[in-house]
Amino acid sequence: MTATRSLRAFLFLPSPMASLRKSWGKMRIVALPLTRAPPPQRIISYYSFKIVPPPAPPPPKDSPSPPSGWLPQEGVVRWATLKVDGTWAGWGKAETGSWRLRVFEFGERFLDRLDFEEGALKRVDVKTAPPTKVSEDLEGAEREEAEAAWEKLEIPLLYPPSVSSAPTALAELRALLQRRIPLHNKGFYTYLLIAPLTAPFMIIPVIPNLPFFFCAWRAWSHYQALRGARHVDALLQSGKIVPVPEAALDAVYATAKVDVPLDSDSPNDKADAGSEGDANQKPRLIVTRDSLGHAMRALDMKDDDAKDVLRAYEQAMNRLR
């Protein structure tokens, strides 16, 4: 089996029971180390959390017509999200020189400066992801079936074997979650408390209360990332995340001419370190923009996902300066 076929085979492991495929989605995690550094220095990695939601159940044949009311059928949160996204996209098409376009351009630059780890964790949809435990609502045979399926649940953590190992991949993911959970918890409550203080800006005519919307959005963003991080951490603690070496990812580092594992020493590093030892070696990038193209193609990434990978590369490069 070729490396690419092997990767696609591991993208989503089948659910152990057919009925459980209807209750939770399939998930896989891909780890791409971006930097190399001797311990105890931190390695910067990009994580792709991919979840395929379960198929929607077919509507009953004799289902009544949807009730009419003021609440949107897709839910208030979903409706509000689509509304905000549509409004923001509309501002990007505003006239040149207008305040809407200037705000849009500033916002896009700000988005590029947000931690790429936050954006990755926000993509973890806890409603469709594999559960961290069996639901307490199930009883009898249905609960026994769910428990048996959950015991067999495995979420692959794909990593490039040429620069990492199974214990390292798990340790780095665990370290990421330990850093991000308290950070997003603090960010959520901070912006939630600041938002009411922006009420005086509501008296400005024509221009909307941008400070309030910014604080509300940052609080929501931190909350989404916090939920995702906690969910992945619970799956990790329960032993459901299993590291899987994927040779197809090695092309990222072969193209970048990286032929030394992360936990070993290269001749250049030894020469630079001199008598000070490995602890004083500085982290360095082990990928390039061109080499990351191999990951984009191997993972069949969409435009938004590819943009996230390049943003992670740019931020990792800036953090090392």
Can you characterise this structure?
This protein has 321 residues and is α/β, with parallel strands linked by helices. It has one domain (3-52, 91-319). Helix content is 50%, strand content 9%. The chain is built from twelve helices and six strands. The strands form two sheets. Strands 3-1-4-5 form a four-stranded mixed β-sheet. Helix 7 runs antiparallel to helix 8 (210-237). The model is unreliable at 1-6, 8-19 and 259-276 (pLDDT under 50). Keywords: Membrane, Transmembrane, Transmembrane helix. Residues 263-284 are annotated as: Disordered. The chain crosses the membrane at residues 188-207. This is Mitochondrial K+-H+ exchange-related-domain-containing protein. One of its GO terms (cellular component) is mitochondrial inner membrane.
Count up the helices.
12
Order of helices and strands: HHEEEHHHHEHHEHHEHH
> What is the makeup of the main sheet?
4 strands, mixed
Overall structural class, as computed from helix and strand content, comes to: alpha/beta
Radius of gyration using CA atoms only: 23 Å
Summed up, the domain count is 1
Distance between the termini: 41 Å
Spatial sequence of strands, sheet with the most strands: 3-1-4-5
Low-confidence stretches: 1-6, 8-19, 259-276
| Percentage of residues in DSSP E strands | 5-15%
Shape: globular
Average pLDDT reading: 77
**How many strands appear in the DSSP assignment?**
6
Name the helicity range: 40-55%
